[in-house]
């Protein structure tokens, strides 16, 4: 079995990365940064998001496992004190794969039907560079509302506990193939009106965002952030691809939610 380890880059994470390499080599496993069977993320959720984007072209064949070196992460099953258990599990146990749904974002540009596609594990956000964000929201090709405000956040179920939750969105179990649209400071008065509530779309529905004023936007895909010009529309839907996590021990989703937000 081939593996690679991606570290957050701090001293603690680097030390654990080196230990993982040494112990896994001792068990006869080989390292392959190009075509790994398993990617071990050492750090936090941000480190695993980076690992996902780096290997998103190998989602059908590569599985991910996380070791967190800071606060409890939603994508990290293991703590530093369990390194030996993790190494033994990878070397001797058959992988139990758990799949989580992803978000596909397709940006359509004005010229020559140019398109650009992205995958997000957590969420995508859309804002304007300046002024009020005004966007027509269509669901399955039908106009739903004209949104005015700071922007929109479209999240996956596993990403529903991140920025989406801070915006008042619902927490969705990752077994539900869906996406969620949450508003950022919408403008609601006697002239302008939005739904004022998060929307949850199933896998067979899609959402199109179409600019009303301006065509330059600030877009984030997980930790990636960039400007896009000449945007005609942005389509968001549940992706056909899924991320595969290597599970060697149970850690139910609701236990993660409780540990992160409620505690003992």
From TrEMBL:
| Alphabetical UniProt keywords | ATP-binding, Cytoplasm, Kinase, NAD, NADP, Nucleotide-binding, Transferase
What are the names of the required cofactors? Answer: a divalent metal cation
User: What's an example of a GO molecular-function annotation for this chain?
Assistant: metal ion binding
* This protein's GO CC annotations: cytoplasm
Q: Where is the signal peptide?
A: none
Where's it mainly located? cytoplasm
Give GO terms for biological process: NAD+ metabolic process; NADP+ biosynthetic process
Q: Which residues bind NAD(+)?
A: 45-46, 122-123, 148, 150, 185
* Cellular compartment(s): Cytoplasm
Which top class of enzyme applies to this chain?
transferase
Give the residues annotated as active site.
45 (proton acceptor)
Its recorded reaction(s) are: NAD(+) + ATP = ADP + NADP(+) + H(+)
Q: What is its EC number?
A: 2.7.1.23
**Function field:** Involved in the regulation of the intracellular balance of NAD and NADP, and is a key enzyme in the biosynthesis of NADP. Catalyzes specifically the phosphorylation on 2'-hydroxyl of the adenosine moiety of NAD to yield NADP.
HAMAP family cross-referenced by the UniProt entry: NAD_kinase
Q: Which family is this sequence assigned to?
A: Belongs to the NAD kinase family.
The protein's name in its UniProt record: NAD kinase
Organism classification = Bacteria, Bacillati, Bacillota, Bacilli, Bacillales
Q: Which gene encodes it?
A: nadK
């Amino acid at each position: 079995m081939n593996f690679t380890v991606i570290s957050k880059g701090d001293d603690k994470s680097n030390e654990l990365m080196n230990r993982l390499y040494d112990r896994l080599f001792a068990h006869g496993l080989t390292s392959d940064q190009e075509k790994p069977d398993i990617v071990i993320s050492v750090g936090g959720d941000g480190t695993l998001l980076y690992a996902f984007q780096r290997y998103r072209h190998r989602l059908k064949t590569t599985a991910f496992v996380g070791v967190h070196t800071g606060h409890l992460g939603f994508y990290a099953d293991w703590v530093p004190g369990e390194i030996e258990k993790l190494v033994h599990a990878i070397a001797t146990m058959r992988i139990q794969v758990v799949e989580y749904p992803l978000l596909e974002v397709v940006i359509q540009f004005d010229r020559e039907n140019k398109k650009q596609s992205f995958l997000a594990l957590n969420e995508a956000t859309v804002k304007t560079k300046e002024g009020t964000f005004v966007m027509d929201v269509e669901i399955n090709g039908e106009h739903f509302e004209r949104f005015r405000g700071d922007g929109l956040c479209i999240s996956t179920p596993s990403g529903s506990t991140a920025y989406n939750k801070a915006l008042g969105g619902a927490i969705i179990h990752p077994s539900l193939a869906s996406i969620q649209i949450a508003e950022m400071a919408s403008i609601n008065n006697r002239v302008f009106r939005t739904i004022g509530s998060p929307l949850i779309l199933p896998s067979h529905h899609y959402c199109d965002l179409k600019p009303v004023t301006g065509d330059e936007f600030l877009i984030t895909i997980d930790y990636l952030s960039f400007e896009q010009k000449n945007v005609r529309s942005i389509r968001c839907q549940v992706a056909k691809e899924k991320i595969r996590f290597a599970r060697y021990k149970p850690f139910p989703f609701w236990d993660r939610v409780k540990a992160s937000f409620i505690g003992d």
